[in-house]
Amino acid sequence: MTALAPARVGAGPAAAPPRRSRRETWTALAFLVPSLLGFVLFYFWPTLQGFWLSLTDYSFFADTSFVGLDNYRRMLGDETFWNALLVTVEYVALNIGFQTVLALGLAVLLHRLTQSVVIRGLVLLPYLVANVVVALLWFWMLDAQIGVVNQVLGALGVDAVAFFGSEDWAIPTVAFVNTWRHLGYTALLIFAGLQTIPRILYEAARVDGATEWQMFRRITLPMLRPVLALVLVVTMVGSFQVFDTVAVTTAGGPAEASNVIQYYIFDLAFQRLDYGYAAAVSVVLLVILAVIAFVQLRLARANESDLA
Amino acid sequence: MVHTDVTTAPPNPAPTTAPAATPTTLRFAPGRILAWAALIGVVAITLFPFYWMLRTALSNGTTLATGGSSLLPVDFTWGAFRRVLGLATTEEAQAEGGSGTSVEFWVYLRNSVVVATLITAGQVFFGALAAYAFARLRWPGRDAVFFLFLTALMVPPIFTQLPNFLLMRDLGILNTYSAVVLPFFFMTPFAIFFLRQFFLGISSEIEEAARLDGAGHVRTFFRIIVPMSWGPVITLALLQYVQAWNEYFWPLLVASEREVRTLTVALGVFRAQEPQGNPDWPGLMAATLIAAVPVLLLFLAFGRRIVDSIGFSGIK
């Protein structure tokens, strides 16, 4: 969604002979056949179908009938749905909050200290490994009895924490695990933005006797705002769809404490076989994500006075 | 690009940077030491869990708890790898805290390789064809269709995957490779945008010259555009391979049976089993390593390409 700039028009001669132009259209169509097929079959049609399903009581075995807005009405009184929404927002706030601040710090460190590709590669490593792998790795390291983190805490005199197993800790723990996985990736996105800031600004500031902190406040942050806005859209949209980590560790528990919205949709559709209702909840997710992207890009544009 | 020489600078706070920067570097020396300490701290926190994964995978499950936070494997053994690959006998597996039922990560490894390879091949090839049509050919409605493709990025995957699941069921191909691969095979918006951006940058003079020599579009595409874009094509293939390899949600829906189960799904299943009251931690870590190693190998071979691909240049 970050590519909303108008498509660049080909630079060739504008007045091509009509016969060649028609042949070019047929060639283009031939080149596009597989993609169009994929788009219509697996994106466009299912999107329409998703909206339609949300207006039905589809389940795998019974007959299907049109129920209008019943599913949406049901959602209003569905405590599990509201809990899922609340838990997801809590997760997104924790995850995006920590991740963005830490990634900004890490990106500035990388930018001001070193150009080393090796270091950038190392911090990116967790992002390349599957969510499921990362989740299970931390599930083990944060185990309440013999996990290494609790062993170390114990040595420091702190009582063992049931990171995944307690209602209070489940969401912060999942947020932490995913922050660990995405930190390097987010930092490298910001780092790419930092590299577009002209170095001469920093050199001029240093001549004027500015401190590192002043340079960060007066140069880096203002110049980086458009990039940060894009990073926030990308990471928040991803964060709202948290599933893998929850599915293999807590399965929504304990007592629905980590029953995030995508897990609830999965649970509705494939465990309770309440497909129509699941589709309605996924419509809500779609709308939330669209609103986030729209609002954030709007806000970013309203402030775009800097060199961007 | 003033400090291009810094690329090879050793990671220490000593003032070895360009002479011009020396006075300031000295003035900020304590700050720089602190900054390097923070950076090294981040790298350590990033790498330690990978080491712990290996250390646990080489430990004996029955005595693991006695090892505490010892940095070395507890009661060193290859047993965990042997049992998750189905090489250990039931007795051997149970003696080291594993399950008696046979676990065959070979099968899941094979499935992941097949699925990720097919998806990558399809996405890169069909994506390149489409990107060429968007970047180098003139036809009515091009920008409108491109915009329509863009909107596909806005829809959360789960939204289309619910109906897609029904489609796979109606086609009768649940629990086949086809079901896992098909929705990703023909089109992914990212591949098209990524390659289109590079194709736009290729000088049109080369193409005109080829045309004067009588080459058609198909020939121009295969003989000129693709060979000139090997770099981006390889980068794209790497990114898509890693993504397909790591995918969990879709294979969880359509590939639950053992014969087609991918590694990520198998890990979820394995984790849910607690053979002797507790999860088989060394087995689980050995299995996660098996799932992580192919990606780590790709990273060792092509790390720079992957690192350089991250940024907004390809998308913005």
Automatic annotation (TrEMBL), chain A:
It holds the Pfam family BPD_transp_1. Keywords: Cell membrane, Membrane, Transmembrane, Transmembrane helix, Transport. InterPro entries: ABC_transporter_permease, MetI-like, MetI-like_sf. The keyword Thylakoid does not apply. The chain crosses the membrane at residues 26-45, 91-110, 122-141, 183-202, 223-243, 275-295. It comes from the Bacteria. Its main location: membrane. It is found in: Cell membrane. Residues 85-296 form the ABC transmembrane type-1 domain. It is a multi-pass membrane protein. Belongs to the binding-protein-dependent transport system permease family. This is Carbohydrate ABC transporter permease.
From TrEMBL, chain B:
Its main location: membrane. The chain crosses the membrane at residues 33-54, 113-134, 146-167, 179-199, 220-242, 281-302. Keywords: Cell membrane, Membrane, Transmembrane, Transmembrane helix, Transport. It is a multi-pass membrane protein. It is found in: Cell membrane. SUPFAM superfamilies: MetI-like. Residues 1-21 are annotated as: Disordered. It comes from the Bacteria. Residues 109-302 form the ABC transmembrane type-1 domain. CDD domains: TM_PBP2. This is Carbohydrate ABC transporter permease. InterPro entries: MetI-like, MetI-like_sf. Belongs to the binding-protein-dependent transport system permease family. Signal peptide: none annotated. It holds the Pfam family BPD_transp_1.
